[in-house]
Structures are given as structure tokens and as C-alpha cells.
Amino acid sequence: MEKAEESGKKIVLFAFRGDVSCFVHVLLNAINYREKGYEAKVVLEGEATKLVAVLAKTDNPMHALFEKTKALGLFAGVCRACSHVLGSQEACVAEGMTLLDDMHGHPGMARYSEEGFTILIF
After folding, report:
1. To which CATH superfamily is domain 4-121 assigned?
2. Residue 1, pLDDT score
3. Long-range contacts: 62-69, Cβ < 8 Å, 24+?
4. How far apart are the C-alpha atoms of 9 and 6, rounded to whole Å?
5. What does the domain layout of the chain look like in residue ranges?
6. Cβ-count burial of 44 within 10 angstroms (0-12 exposed, 13-18 middle, 19+ buried)?
7. What's the whole-number average pLDDT of the chain?
């Protein structure tokens, strides 16, 4: 199978909502895209940054899915500004998430467009 970078199959999923049931679909789709040969990334923005602490708890039913997504290296990172304002930055850093801030403290989408990614927003 050709590499995703060579095929041009690149997808980035921006998650804004702080709803676990919505976010689970972001994770499932990121994994599915990876399995289909895409270069896939997940960016957490807004209220979604608060989900890191929730899903990091081992008793959360979606913890294994969160850990699988991390293990596959699918998380590009979390919004520095939003995680700071919403009080989730410490938990995000503790889980090894990169703080993204290339657009006035937020992760910009333009850089992904410039790199050939298709952008999906949740």
C-alpha cells in the first residue's frame, strides 16, 4: 500500500463540541481513515479540549478508544487559548497533547489546507 503522504490522502478532523458521543465519532473516523491509508489528524478546539480529562479516566467507557487514538499518534494537538480559558490545559499537557497556537493562540486551519489536508469540522 502506498503511503498516505504519497497518495495525497490527508484528512484533519477539528472537534469543537464538548459532547462525548459526538467526539467518539471523531475518534472512530480518524482511526478508520488511518486504516484506509489516509494521513489522519485530530485537532481539539473549544469545549472539546475538556474531553481529554474525561476520557483519560480509566473508568470511562471510551477510555480504550481514546488511548488507541493516542497510541496511533492521531492527535495533532489542542487549542492553547481554549484549553487555557476552559481550564483544561493542564490535563491536556498531562496526556501528552501538543498545544497549538499558530493563529492568534488557536490552531489555524489554513496550514492544513496548504499541506493538502481535507478539513472536517465536528
Report:
1. DsrEFH-like (3.40.1260.10)
2. 46
3. 62/20, 62/24, 62/27, 65/24, 65/27, 65/28, 66/27, 68/27, 68/31, 69/27, 69/30, 69/31, 69/42
4. 8
5. 4-121
6. buried
7. 95
- pTM to 2 decimals? 0.93
Amino acid at 57: K
Other beta carbons within 10 angstroms of residue 41's beta carbon come to: 21
| 26: alpha, beta or left? (left if phi > 0; alpha if psi -120 to 50) | alpha
Which grid cell is 40?
Answer: 489522519
What does the DSSP 8-state code read for residue 117?
A: -
Beta carbons within 8 Å of 114's beta carbon, 6+ residues apart: none
Identity of the amino acid at 22: C
